[in-house]
Amino acid sequence: MSQHFIDVILPIPLQKTFTYSVTEAEANFLQKGMRVAVEFGKSKIYTALVFNIHQKAPELYEAKDIHQILDEQPIVNEQQLKHWQWIANYYMCSLGDVYRAALPSAFLLESETVLYKNNAFSDESVLNDEEFLIFEALHHHSQLTVHQVADILGKKKVLPIINELLHKSVIEIKEEIYETYKPKLVKYVRLHPQYENEEALQLLLDELSRAKKQRDAVLTFFQLKSIKKPIKAKDLEQKSGVSSQILKALVDKNIFEFYHLQTDRIHFKGETNGLKQLNEHQQQASEEIKQSFEQHDITLLHGVTSSGKTEVYTKLILETIESGKQVLFLLPEIALTTQIITRLQAYFGNSISVFHSKYSINERVEVWNNVLDNKPKAQIILGARSSIFLPFSNLGLIVVDEEHESSYKQYEPSPRYNARDAAVVLGKLHKAKVLLGSATPSIESMFNATQQKYVLVELKRRHGNIQLPKIELIDIKEKHRKKEMTGHFSDRMLQLINEALEEKEQVILFQNRRGFSPIVECTTCGTSPQCPNCDVSLTYHKFRSELKCHYCHYQRAMPTSCGACGNSTLDTKGFGTEQIELELKELFPNYNIGRMDSDTTRGKFGYQKIIEAFETQEIDVLVGTQMLSKGLDFDNVSLVGILNADSMLNFPDFRAHERAFQLMVQVSGRAGRTKKQGQVAIQSFNPYHQILQQVSTNNYDEMYKEQLQDRWQYHYPPYYRLIKITLKHRDYTKVDMGINWLAKALQNVFGENVLGPTAPAVSRIRNQYIKNLMIKIPPKQSLGKTKEELQKIKNTFEAVKDFRPIRFIIDVDAY
Fold first, then answer.
1. Alpha-helical segments (H) within 67-128
2. CB 648 within 8 A of CB 692
3. 8 A C-beta contact, residue 283 and residue 216
């Protein structure tokens, strides 16, 4: 009798698949992409994904049996697995990493250790106090989970105590799998079948003549019944004004029955409208895109801010779903989804599903299942970068909006992919068309367009022929000298804000730092409070009067005196959004000031509340970080102020100038979108900087040419590829030895194309020391061969005993 085996992907960062044995019946039932529970290691159970079914036994180990099969049909399809393999190969990570990132965590059931009492044990005298507490608890409960043990003892580290109990034979343990997705059930009410005829009903109402509330509930039930829809228990309670106890009493009397229906957590309510008519420029762009799609698969749409790119997208989306195919609409920022959802739902109603990390686990599972089954409500998927992992079966179009955004790049944890590039590959696998859109395309995409890899389509007029905003540069060095500054505002900036507010228009102010002040410093000895876990000074948040680390979330109360010299001469340096908000409240006490940064947008509807308040003009001035720059559309904003342009320009990164240009042009694009030309005021100590001059004339082409020249001269993308290697460990000397060994090994192979080793600006985060190396890959050098060499060096590095505990991170295209 021949044996059957399956290769599975485990959700752990190991490079290879693992083989398990299955029976013939199981092998016939299983398909690629189903989940099975398997034991890995001594006792831990994981949810693995079937990758292959075959009859070849593993050579190096005895194949274990699987624990159980978890699915009746595959939850991951063939094309997804191909896409995962591409991501794992290209970004040099394991399939397990991609699997863990791709599936909503509710699908990745893991086992939980459950403790049972060993009935043979009786000698309580050998137990210490903590062990006795657990022993006692097992008298009252048949089993305890590790979490419950932690709660009983009031401490996190309980494994040593559990080990001791095992050692003394007090307990036995088992691994049990727990399912984390629970469908949402809604309770409905119906009448008991015995009251279907009218005589029985009349008797019932006579019977209830004394129980007024119960009679009201029954009469309201008949009013609602006329709508011919199932009646929710909640609706019946509200409409008849009775409590849930009264409904329960009617159920106990066998007058009503409760039943449950499974429902999706996300649904759209409202009317749909037809698409807006495109103007001639949009129409022309739309035609050019369609023509380009006949010959090519990827098109770059370069449209100035407020030129109506979304309307062009909607037209293409409509045509794609009419041909029966699915559409993926990628957005860089969750804040943006809230506005675009509203706009697209007005056109497409219930065919839209949204997928991003602010949604709960269960909501994400529902979207996954709807896409897998190709349901009508999942024809258009709107989402942040993780939505490229959804199980599409029939993809026709991928739109990547604001394609230049750095938010498309995932940095931690692995896989460190770029969603824009992964979407291009996904499009190729599905033979779908890909449209990249931006007002300030990334230099790589524009370069690909000039090299004929992509087709370039331009949209140079704003919608309604409104002119691009007038940009004014304010020299704050001069203003400081003439003492014309109030706090962080120049007299000109305040004058412009005043004029806009008097005209009943709104203002957006941009400052790319949250908190009140990035540095607190003692004016006597110059010491500033540092984070104990990271090499950064703590940021002061005035609202809660606390100091916070933006890297590891360490926080402590604001001290009253200097920790070094004891003087109470603490002063703040630099400024963040919170400080701007407080200054504005003093300067404009009669207006509403709002703030939008990651401190104020916590929670699922955080963004929505602020955006809606600003749209309905409850907020007059909105202060925010870069979240504000990404494609938001407000009708009544006439002024945008950038308070400190220099902090963006003086950043130690080869993309600093490109990023600063994109950010400022995008923020400026929020002004004057509907009625009249908007205004933008940029405060800087160096208004003659070439990038600021290019922003003020909105000259993308000049910026592009200049940056390309620099990139060619200094060997950076798009001409050279980059691979960044990072080492992390708690022991500085270990990291230092490791990085020096690695640098020599790499220089032997790649010579002068290895940069480093260097320590980053923040060289310790969460008590881990960090060192970097960069490999540049020249245009003619094979990327595949380079990665092979790098993998060999990595394997040798990890074989050295001293280096084994060091965390080795590879980031391909690390920009």
1. 78-90, 95-102
2. no
3. no
